[in-house]
Amino acid sequence: MVGLKAGLRQQSMKVKTLDVSGSVTGNIHNVTEGSVWFVDRQKATSTTGNGSSWIEAFLTITEAINVAGDNDIIYIAAGTGTANNYTETNTITITQDNLKLIGANVSHGFRTTNLRDTTCLDDIITIKAHGVEIRNLSFYSTTNAKAAIAIGVDADATSYHGIYIHDCYFYATSGEYAIMTFTAPDAPDLRIEDCKIQNFQTAGIKLHATRGTVRGCYITVPNNKVGIAFTDRGAIERIEENIIIGGSTGDTGITLSGDNRGNFVVAHNTLLNLNTSMTQDVGDEGCCWNYLFANGTTPTVVDVTS
Question: Which of 74, 91, 244, 250 is deepest in the core (most CB within 10 A)?
C-alpha cells in the first residue's frame, strides 16, 4: 500500500509539472493558432508601427485587417472623449475565417472603442468569412451607412457560418441597421448577444439566419421602425431575453415573416411602450412567455401562438 501511495504522489507531481507552453500538434483538434495584432490611434508616438505590440501598434483598423490572416486576433485600444473614434476611410471587409476583432482593456464596448462612418458611406464592417467574432466595440452610424455590421453581400448567395457578435454598442443618427444579413445569403448559427442598440432607422437587427440567436440585447426603437426583424429562414431561430423599448409612433418590437419561415422560439422578451409588440405570419411557432408593458400598466404575459 505504501508503494502504491508513493506511486500516486509521483504521478501527481508529474501532472503538476507538465510543460504546456508548447503548441499542440497532431489530429486531436487540428487547431491552428494565428497571430496577434494591435491597433491604437492614441499611441504616444502618433506614428503607425508594424502592429506586433502596443508600442508598435497600427493607427488604423484597416492596416491590421490588411495583414491579418485566418485565426488571427486584432486588439483595438480604447480611447477617451472624441479620440475614441476610429474613422476608417472605407468599409472594413473581413475575409479571414475565425478572425477576432476585440476592443481591449474594457469590460464592454459601450462608448469606449468607437468605429464611426464619418467618411465611409456604406457598411462600417462587412463580414465575408466563417467564425468571425466581434466583441467590446462601439459603432456610431452618423452619416448614410447602411449597416454597422453587414454579414455577406447583397445578391451573393454565399453563406457564412458561426459568426459571434457580443458585448457591443450600436448608435445611429441615420444608419439603417445595427446588424443585418441580406436576402440571398444565409448566416447559419449566427449569435448576437448582450449588445445595446439604439435609434437605427429601419431595424435594429435584420436577419435571415438558420439557427440564428439574438439573446440578452437592449434595443430602443424610433418612429415607425422595428427592433428585431427575422425573415425567410427556418430551423429554430431563437429570440430570447431581450429588452425592446419604443414609446414613439408606429414602432414594432419583433417581426417574424417570410416564405421560408420555420420554427421560431421567441421567449422571455420584455416589450415596452411599443405601438405593435410583435407580428408574425401564419405558421411561425413557439412565441411564448413574452412580457408586454404599456405606459404605467401591469405587464401582460403573452403566448402569441395561443
Answer: 244
Q: How confident is the model at residue 243, as a pLDDT? A: 94
* Interval 219-246 mean pLDDT: 84
Answer for the pair 128, 99: CB distance below 8 angstroms, yes or no. no
3-state helix, strand and coil shares in percent for the chain, rounded to the nearest 5: 10, 35, 55
- Strands 114-116 and 85-86 turn out to be parallel
Q: How far is residue 214 from each of residues 149, 195, 229, 251, measured CA to CA in Å?
A: 15, 9, 11, 19
Separation between Cα atoms, residue 111 and residue 114, nearest integer Å: 7
For residue 139, the cross-strand partners are 115, 170
What letter represents residue 107's amino acid?
Answer: S
* Residue 16 three-state SS: helix
State the residue for C-alpha cell 426603437: 221
Determine the Cα angle at 227 with ends 226 and 232, to 5°: 75
| Close Cβ partners of 215 (under 8 Å, ≥ 6 residues apart) | 191, 192, 193, 194, 238, 239, 240, 241, 242
What is the DSSP code string of 166-232? ES-EEEESS-SEEEEE-SSS--TT-EEES-EEE--SSEEEEE--TT-EEES-EEE--TT-EEEEEES
∠ CA 222-228-231 to the nearest 5 degrees? Answer: 130
For residue 165, list its beta bridge partners. 134, 192
pLDDT tens-digit map of 174-220:
888 999 987 666 788 999 999 999 999 899 999 877 888 999 999 99
Q: What is the pLDDT of residues 34-48, one digit of tens each?
A: 999 999 988 888 899
| Residue that the C-alpha cell 421560408 belongs to | 260
In degrees and rounded to multiples of 5, residue 19 shows phi and psi of -85, 115
Residues in the chain: 306
The model's pTM: 0.82
